[in-house]
């Protein structure tokens, strides 16, 4: 019996090995689940931030929609900009002139 292991020790060792493998699989699945959860949370955060930026480009600070915009010349300061607002009256205003006009119409300085 010199080369054979004790049956009780062999059985206990076998159960420890199987249990360790099962535990390792569960730990790996848990880590994978945490990784996926973290990626989902990061993705949602980036999506929320992008939606907020897009909303900021379409709506003013007062919540009212901004007029359509494109590249062009400002009728007030007569300079070229990558973004000018095309007013319903037919005029074109750069963002700074639009804000100044909006503030003066609201009674500000």
What sequence of helices (H) and strands (E) makes up the elements? Answer: HEEEH
Query: How many discrete structural domains?
Result: 2
Total strands: 3
Going across the biggest sheet, name each strand in turn: 1-2-3
Main beta sheet: strand number and arrangement?
3 strands, antiparallel
Radius of gyration: 33 Å
> What portion of residues belong to β-strands?
5-15%
Count of helical segments? 2
State the end-to-end distance.
Answer: 101 Å
**Shape label:** rod-shaped
Classify the helix fraction into a percent range.
55-70%
- SSE class: alpha+beta
What does it look like?
The structure is a single chain. With 109 residues, this protein is of the alpha+beta class. The protein folds into 2 domains: 1-58; 69-105, no CATH class. Helices cover 58% and strands 13% of the residues. The protein contains 2 helices and 3 strands. It has helices at 7-58, 95-105; strands spanning 69-73, 80-86, 92-93. A 3-stranded antiparallel β-sheet has the order 1-2-3. Strand 2 and strand 3 form a beta hairpin. The chain is rod-shaped, with a radius of gyration of 33 Å. The protein starts with 6 loop residues before the first helix and ends with a helix. The model has no long low-confidence stretch (mean pLDDT 88).
């Amino acid at each position: 019996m010199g080369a054979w292991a004790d049956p009780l020790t062999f059985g206990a060792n076998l159960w420890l090995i199987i249990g360790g493998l099962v535990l390792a699989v569960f730990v790996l699945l848990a880590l994978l689940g945490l990784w996926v959860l973290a990626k989902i949370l990061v993705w949602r955060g980036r999506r929320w931030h992008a939606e907020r930026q897009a909303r900021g480009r379409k709506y003013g600070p007062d919540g009212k929609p901004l007029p359509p915009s494109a590249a062009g010349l400002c009728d007030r300061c007569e300079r070229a900009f990558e973004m000018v607002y095309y007013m319903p009256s037919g005029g074109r205003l750069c963002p700074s002139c639009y804000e100044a006009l909006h503030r003066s119409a609201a009674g500000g300085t």
